[in-house]
Amino acid sequence: MAKDNKKDKFSTEGLKVPVSLGVIMDGNGRWAKKRLLPRSAGHRAGAENLKELCRNCGNYGVKYLTVYAFSTENWSRPQAEVDQLMKLFVEFFAKYDPELEEEGIRVRFTGDIDALPEDLRKVCREGEERSKNRQKMQLIVAFNYGGRREITQAAQSLAKDVAEGRLSIEDITEDSLSERMYLPDVPDPELIIRPSGELRISNFLLWECAYSEFWVSDTLWPDFGYEDLTQAFRDYAKRDRRFGGLSKKEG
Ligand code: IPE
Ligand code: IPE
Ligand code: MG
């Protein structure tokens, strides 16, 4: 990236930068179709764009960036597409980890990682281990992730403790359930961005999004860049987050 005006480029005047941001990386297929390219080309372009998003978010001061890369429902796609997405996933970390390191970006995974084939689990565990001391931002990749599965597994874990006498039913609270989510130390996203025009959550961070602000755009994920991100932060600054209470102006 150009070193010039980096300070001005990432000025936060008039913007609000969330500490924790979620991004649903959708629209790769449509991006490819528009160019008469195979869907695989869209996925490749989408992966390239993730690197750019990481850099921009890190420079803006986002601390936790959770990106939706592969859902528990995405296994229902044609086997060739699934295989290509898995291959791309492995390649991404092999290719870009040095750049992520340079940017101080720690990599973590959220999702049903234990259910993945051994080679993919290994990529996840090694990537987390290698990057664990990086401080600038955490990139959390939601992979084989489903919000319903996350909540179900958290419930199973609590139920097991109750059945084995380590916990009583009264100990099941919003806080104790939160603690059994995949990454309980990661703050709930204040803002969730969905490119590509869909107005749905598609099983992303269901528990954690209770009070997230949503921002959608028609830009397809591979084209989603600095300007879109900046506009999202500009609009987010104008949101009045009431959490069921009253506006600060009224209260
Ligand atoms: C997002 O792009 C990538 C994944 C879901 C893995 P899509 O592949 O869903 O692209 P569209 O929605 O078909 O355009
Ligand atoms: C959501 O996109 C999942 C990811 C971006 C990884 P989908 O393309 O799978 O969502 P739907 O099918 O349009 O709801
Ligand atoms: Mg899609």
Topology:
Layout (H helix, E strand, L loop, with lengths): L5 H4 L10 E5 L3 H7 L4 H22 L3 E8 L7 H24 L2 E6 L7 H14 L5 E9 L1 H17 L10 H6 L11 E4 L18 E4 L9 H11 L15
Parallel strand pairs: 1-2, 1-5, 2-4, 3-4, 5-6
Helix pairs in contact: 2-3, 3-4, 4-5
The structure holds 3-methylbut-3-enyl trihydrogen diphosphate (IPE) (2 copies) and magnesium ion.
Give me a quick take on this structure.
By secondary structure, the chain is of the alpha/beta class.
Describe what you observe in this structure.
With 251 residues, this protein is of the alpha/beta class. The chain has 8 helices and 6 strands. A 6-stranded parallel sheet has the order 3-4-2-1-5-6, with helices on both faces. The protein is globular, with a radius of gyration of 19 Å. The mean pLDDT is 96. The site of one 3-methylbut-3-enyl trihydrogen diphosphate has 11 residues, from strand 2.
What is the strand tally? Answer: 6
CATH superfamily: Decaprenyl diphosphate synthase-like
- Sheet of most strands: 6 strands, parallel
What's the CATH topology label? Undecaprenyl pyrophosphate synthetase
Ions, cofactors, ligands: which are bound? 3-methylbut-3-enyl trihydrogen diphosphate, magnesium ion
Task: Give the low-confidence spans.
Answer: none
Strand content: 5-15%
Q: Estimate the helix proportion, in percent.
A: 40-55%
Which structural class do the helices and strands define? Answer: alpha/beta
Question: H/E series, N to C?
Answer: HEHHEHEHEHHEEH
The CATH architecture name reads: 3-Layer(aba) Sandwich
Give Rg in angstroms: 19 Å
What's the pLDDT, averaged over the residues?
A: 96
CATH class: Alpha Beta
The rounded distance between the terminal residues' Cα atoms is: 44 Å
